[in-house]
Amino acid sequence: MENTVNRSGFIAIVGRPNVGKSTLLNRLVGQKVAIVSQRPQTTRNRILGVLTEEDCQMVFLDTPGLHRPHNKLGDFMVRQAERAVRDVDMTVLMVEPSERVEGIETEVLRLCEGPVLLAINKIDTVRKDALLGVIAAYAKAYDFAALLPISARTGEGVEVLKQELIARLPEGPAFFPADMSTDQTERQLLAEFVREKALRNLDQEVPHGIAVEIEQFCQHEDGLLEVGALIYCEKNSHKGIIIGAGGERLKHIASSARVDMERLMGCKVYLSVFVKVRENWRDSARMLRSFGYREGS
């Protein structure tokens, strides 16, 4: 695509856990750059997605869900969201169709310096007339630039949201090449694919206590990519749950992740996954850094 961009900007997507921020990011960018699950707090780091069109470029920042932190990892996640809304040209606050405005949402709104658009997600799950109360409640809480009902899952209303964002972009050149969709490295994406499949297959208490590291990444001459992944958990009992009876759960996690890896890399992937215990890693500054959870990242 010829780079004729004359408008560009950074846009933060914020909201409570599990409101659909990563689904919206993937929908806007047009490909999977953020993992998605039904578990809250799936996104831990700031994830950047880039959409370049003929005359504009939008750089989206998908942020961790707004919540009250209980450990150092939680503190890091909340700071990522707070930093994002201070550093962008616009913010999209994403909410579910509920008339209850959460205090943590209003706290973050006070930090926003540019226009804020409200995206009321999951409208495919409620009657349209139920949205009137939601719109009224949030309009009373903050002076939004626009209030837009959408479904990130089906795509309903997303094009309207995109056009509202484009209309508010400041003048400026592209920040990234036109063919770039994310700033995440291949290793980061592969690790997230493993974590996504683990999140979808584990019991309630385990998912928040896992991290994934890619320790082997080797492309062979025949085109085969050999990947070795380590899933870290906090308890021996959790290790057993992740592996499952006869190793079946771990095999399922690996085989599901391999499908996404092959789609991304465009080649055959040989994936091996192992599980290790690192007690209380979520409260270890050293371990958080080693897993890539660094301030400013």
Global geometry: globular
The count of strands amounts to 9
Structural class: alpha/beta
Per CATH, the architecture of the largest domain is 3-Layer(aba) Sandwich
How many angstroms separate the termini?
28 Å
Task: For the structure shown, list the relevant keywords.
34% helix, globular, 297 residues, 6-stranded mixed beta sheet, Rossmann fold, alpha/beta, GMP Synthetase, Chain A, domain 3, 22% strand, single chain, 9 helices
Protein model, in words:
The protein is α/β, with parallel strands linked by helices and 297 residues long. It folds into 2 domains: 7-167, Rossmann fold, CATH 3.40.50; 186-290, K homology (KH) domain (GMP Synthetase, Chain A, domain 3), CATH 3.30.300.20. It is 34% helix and 22% strand. It is built from 9 helices and 9 strands. It has a 6-stranded mixed β-sheet with strand order 2-3-1-4-5-6, sandwiched between helices. Strands 7-8-9 form a 3-stranded mixed β-sheet. Helix 4 links the parallel strand 5 and strand 6 (146-149). The chain is globular. Residues 39-44 have low confidence and may be disordered.
